[in-house]
Amino acid sequence: MLAVLLSSVLMEHIADFQPGSYSDLRSFEIVSFDDGVHRGGEKIDDEDNSIFSAANLNTNSVPNGPTEFPISRKKAQTHIARHKHVAARSIFDAWYAQRGTTRIPKFVRQFARTGHANLLVFDAVFYARLDVLDCLHRLSRLRRSHVPLMDLAAATGHLDVLQFLFEHGYGGCTTFTMDDAARNGHLEVVQWLHEHSKVGCSFRAIDGAAAFGHLDIVDFLLDSRDEGFSIDAILGAATRGHLTLVALLADESGVEDVLLQAMVAAAASGKLEVVQYCYEQHEGCCVQKAIAAAGKACHADVLRYLKQKPDCTCCFSYH
């Protein structure tokens, strides 16, 4: 009996069958993977701050590949929006620095019924902890969480994580996987998915990349793929003031009056340089919608510029 009591290994095995918690895991009890429940007045899917596009969030639980649990993009997004991943990271950093990956099996066992497995998997993907992912793979835990593995890795730009998941059989993608990588500006990920994803992307890849100013990705997609783009690409670029992209995509579209719509979008968000460019390409065009949009948003410099322009034929006739 004394030999048993003096053996830390045997005592740990005995403790596995006892109630309670390990001292090094207690700090994790104060953090959790987000429940995804919407709080009144809360904005968790703001396009400018979300890692997933609204279109991808709307698919929510559509799986990327084989999974034992239903995935939830909305839970992943709310986890980020509420900064829970940041709070958890410092705890994980300290724990891994002291213990490495040796205690992951204990973590999984202790928190088997609490949803903390999602916290562990999310942190490993989001912060590209490949040693942790390898351990979770060997424990057969990666498919037993609600985390959208491929989408999260692509949206955060972790090519090494994508490659690991692909090589170990977790590589199912939807078009949103590549779309959101493009939207978030991860060119190497987009290029890799172009070569390896069977489903590729949709027109939303250029739409998102243009809206957020990723010229290198738009150039690559225009040269390498044929999904094209929608008018939202031009309007999104105009709204955020990406003049080079507005000019490029307007020329690519071949639609004669698309810059008139872009001028209104730019006026509404106060992007004077874009407004000036759009007007100069259609000098003498009607500016009344742009004036109304700028006035509603109180963009005085845009209003001053537009009100200096002469009335177009239709406005002159109306007066």
Give me the secondary-structure category: mainly alpha
Give average pLDDT, whole number: 89
Number of domains: 3
What is the percentage of strand-forming residues? Answer: under 5%
- Estimate percent helicity: 55-70%
Give start-end ranges of low-pLDDT stretches. none
What's the end-to-end separation, in Å? 103 Å
Task: Give a short account of the largest sheet.
Answer: none
Global morphology: elongated
Please tally the β strands and state the result: 0
Number of helices: 21
Radius of gyration: 26 Å
Order of helices and strands: HHHHHHHHHHHHHHHHHHHHH
Topology of this protein?
Blueprint: H1 2-5, H2 8-15, H3 54-59, H4 73-81, H5 84-99, H6 104-110, H7 116-126, H8 130-138, H9 149-155, H10 159-167, H11 175-183, H12 187-196, H13 204-211, H14 215-224, H15 231-239, H16 243-253, H17 258-268, H18 272-281, H19 288-296, H20 300-307, H21 313-318
Helix pairs in contact: 9-10, 9-11, 11-12, 11-13, 12-14, 13-14, 13-15, 15-16, 15-17, 17-18, 17-19, 19-20
